[in-house]
Prior knowledge:
heterotrimer, B: Enolase-like, domain 1, four-stranded antiparallel β-sheet
Amino acid sequence: MTRTIPLSLAINGKPHTLDVEPRVTLLDALREHLSLTGTKKGCDQGQCGACTCHVDGERVLSCLTLAAQVEGRQVTTIEGIAGEDGTLHAVQKAFIEQDAFQCGYCTPGQIMSAVACIREGHAGSDAEIREYMSGNLCRCGAYNSIVAAVREAAAAVSVNEKVEAA
Amino acid sequence: MRDFSYLRAASVDAARAGAIQPGAMLLAGGTTLLDLAKCGVATPDTVIDVTHLSGLSAIEVDADGARIGALAKMAAVADDPAIIAAFPAISQSLTLAASQQLRNMATIGGNLMQRTRCPYFRDPGTFSACNKRAPGSGCSAIGGVTRNHAVLGVSDACIATYHGDLAVALVAFDAVVEIGERSVAIDDFFLVPGDTPERETLIEAGEMITGIRVPASAGAGNSVYLKVRDRQSYEFAAASAAVSLELEDDGRTVRDIRVALGGVATKPWRARAVEQALIGKAIDAETVKAASLLAVEGAVSNGGNQYKIALAPRVVARAISDLASKTARTSGGQA
Amino acid sequence: MTIMEPNREPRKHGSAGDGMVGGRMSRFEGELKIKGAATYALEYPMENVAHAVLVQSTIAAGRVVSVDISKASAMPGVLLVLTPQDDLGLTMCGDWAGNPSSGEPYYPLPQTVQFNGQSIAAVIAESREQASEAARLVTVTYEETPSVTGLHDPNAGEGKVMPNLVVNWGDAEQALAHAEVTIEATYETPREYHVAMEPHGLMTTWEGDALTIWEPSQWSHGMARMYAEWFGIDYENVRIVSPYIGGGFGSKGQPLAYGAVAAAASKKLGRPVKLAVTRPQNFTSYGGRAATRQTIALGATKDGILQAIRHRGMSETSVYADYAEQTGAATPVLYKVENFSSEHRIVAVNTVTPGALRGPGKNPSAYGIECAMEELAYVLDMDPLALRLKNYADHDYQSGKPWSTRRLREALTEGAAAFGWDKRSHQPRSMRDGNQLVGYGIGCGTFPVIRAPSEAIIRILADGRVEVVSGSIDMGQGTYTILAQTAAEAMGVSIDQVVVQLGDSRLPGSSIAGGSMLAGSITGAVHKAALAARDELVGLALNAPNSPFAGSGANTLSVSGGEISTGSGDGPVVTIAEMMKALGREHLEIRRNTLSDDAQEAAEQRKAWTTMARVMGPTMGDYSMHSWCAHFAEVRVDEEFGTVRVSRMVSAFDCGRLYNPKLVESQWRGGIIMGIGQALLEEGIVDPRNGRTVNNNVGDYLVPTNADIPDLTVISVGVPDLNASALGGKGVGEVGIVGVAPAIANAVYHATGKRVRDLPITLEKLI
């Protein structure tokens, strides 16, 4: 057998332990070892964005991240962004409402990217959304609806924040 | 990917001590190393993860210039208000590179160490000849598909383009690369291929970039990074230019100008001939156009990349003209 | 709370969310997809699975002399290495059309190399990482032979004429010789790829002679049949599971060599095998759109009446199969012309056999004729819109048949109005915005209505829910949603009461999800079955002794909102669940198909679901039936840099009745975006020295990003066409892309005065 190393990863707020070869990427750890298949493999070489998830709250590509690298960090995947009670995230709701996907394969990555895009403050205009969502390819061509969904969700998030602040 | 051991460096010294071992490679954002490992180009025995080191990601800007820690993320530098104000071309070069996800991963030090996108370099299973991968084996690109290959700084051994953006801006600003205790001017840090294309930078085994210093210059705040490509986003440059411009008080005579090119050369390419042709001259369209043509002095085409020789000077000229008209407007407004 | 503004949106197609056919229902399976909970092929939990990685050829043509597997076999975790030396015991399968197998052996890992990137070995190991590393250590020794790597290869030759693709009427040569105005030009399109976001791959497992395959499939029944024939097992023993597919666009309609390899490895090892085709390997594991070249000559009168069209086209195919990307497919149906001549050839080159990619044939064909028409317009100094309207085809000149419905005129006029075509200044290079030249262009598109039979089960459950069961698939077109709508409407229940089960070859037969034929076909079967189920329920309600309606004297009952009533206002109102309870039924199941009476035998049914034998073309009836569209593009060109950006598009479509406009609009936009990629970015680049696709990844083979796409306005001008399908729809998915590339190429010409006749229009062609 090849060498494996024990890892303890914090994913969606829960600890997970696994024993993998050091070369296993975060993407493969999620999909092949932890049954978290919501994160998708589209290219496995950093060119499509389907594997986008959050590490310490920032969007990254899990295909170019080693699982070992994120030990000690907080990982969030598509399975972890709805509320504990199952309430959908504003971005998820907007994606359904705007029909911002067809086949659904790039969708988890788009949503993870969109959540971060809004949080980063990069959803200020349609042009900015387009640019900051360009790391997520969609071959079905849902781009218009993705922009609309991010715009709608950004407005909803901003309302929520104001309510919370008040 | 080949099997490897994973080590987490506890300190810069430990990272350097590890990296000097044969087969060891430093791992930062992973966007180059893991990509190349999957292509079969990089075959480390050990990767030494430096991303957990603290104290190497600061971004400081003052009257003397900027100092950026090697582990600062591209996205953090791109969005840093002080960088945006003092060195707009640096921010722009980062914002126009890759995608936000990759910019959140990739570090500044790693960005400088990125390797070429030459498809022949990246496909060792099919193209065994590559002087970068296997010195002396030949160059598969020459005689092949060369649309994205370099026209400047090429040799018979290698025509692979340096595809990065940030380093182009840094070369324009005469940045200095800090490699632990020693510092190297960035133009010297990157090497043209010559007969040794496997050697791309001055980094020696066991060395690690620890930071970048960008000295203040009068024109830095009036700088731009212009990137031209077929796709609007998430593509490497067909040609790009980083330009900073300082005009005399008359609002039209060039006091200082810096020009560097990307996407067309084997390293980030400083175009000093263009600068020299413009310093002391009054800016007008014809002067700028004539001077910009000097950007591709000595350019060599290998077929499909011929267009770069026409395109690069136009990118330079546009960048200069845009800055000049902006400056003229600004000074006009003040007058 | 949300306040609805009544009548703000046009309600032509039904109101949002009412669940009925024509309504703007959100995607039925949407919640699963946005949660990452829809399970794609490689994501099923599987115990003890081994991982296979392919080794592909690195030469264009020749023979595998030897494969050294010693290093690979010695690597940790490696279980098996398959090479051309291994007899996998497979037999060729019958083809799509239903022609039976030749009985010849089938070698998915062949000794003879016919193209660069052909699978020639596979490594199976405990983990994908191990298999992947070991695969690099497989050393292949080749004996190379001369190759032809593309249409531009000096040795490519002229290929051969496809006799079924020769079309002539009138006398085109004579008419061209006498025409007052003629133009002639040659147009080329490169190899293009599907690039579905989900890469190809599969998981397979055997239990005795029974093979289960989890693989993205546009045609579960057809693929199951081909696997069965390869392995010499009964059709019933193969099961393809494919409820969610991460995009197909034509690439996932048949099993491919790697599928045979995975299933054979699984059989040899006696354990499940997962094979993920890497993104680079996707570029050669199945064919994209063939490169094409066509020369078109048009003759017209000085006032713009078309006199003749002469078309000579060719496309590349592989050295081992004939596949024609029909450059003459749209040429004969777009305009009124009395003299026509078209011929298509195929040229064998060392590539994987090309395949169907969105708008096959029609797409490059429309690129040719629609560019040629605008070239003619400029020679005539005539508005390209006016030229098209002037030569409007009143009927199908090829078949001589009337159109069933053809609202292309409305597409042109309403599209032009929405676009603001009247603000165009005719002269090229006459519109400018700062550094940018602005141009407008038009491209018309068409795709035939292809009809096919399907079958469906409607199951009324004890709790009153209605289950729709079909082996058809949903790769994002919206099958789940429109079948739920169809069943809800026909059954008289709300959409919440409907359950849809798809994507399994063991479920009722259906047409392929391709050629835009599935929606029209499967809605017909579901509608038929649902009406029959409702009749059955009503019949039982009227006649069963325990029914609340027994002895009510009613002749008929109404089912609406999930409730059964007499419809007259008096008498009982009973939910379907209550009725099922009263009837003492656990479920009520009705199976119906839309096959003709002569095809109801079991063997005929099987053939219908697993081959193309019962598929009907657009003129196999009294009418000529097609979807139509007109695209209007605005481009901005930076003349110094040669960069083109599409700044605005309006596209008007006649696709008949829309079952769900929200989903249809998404599909149209998807086609348009793929067309923008085709026009400006997409090109498979082959090294002529060894036939390698050097940009075999999505960082180098560029598809549009979000930032490349402006707001796309789409308009429906269609009317229901009941000749085309049971519910009046025509095809939607294919036609969206057809005509986009010429609209953009024409706009680039209008902006710059430069006519680029080979796609894509990359910057070096304009500087």
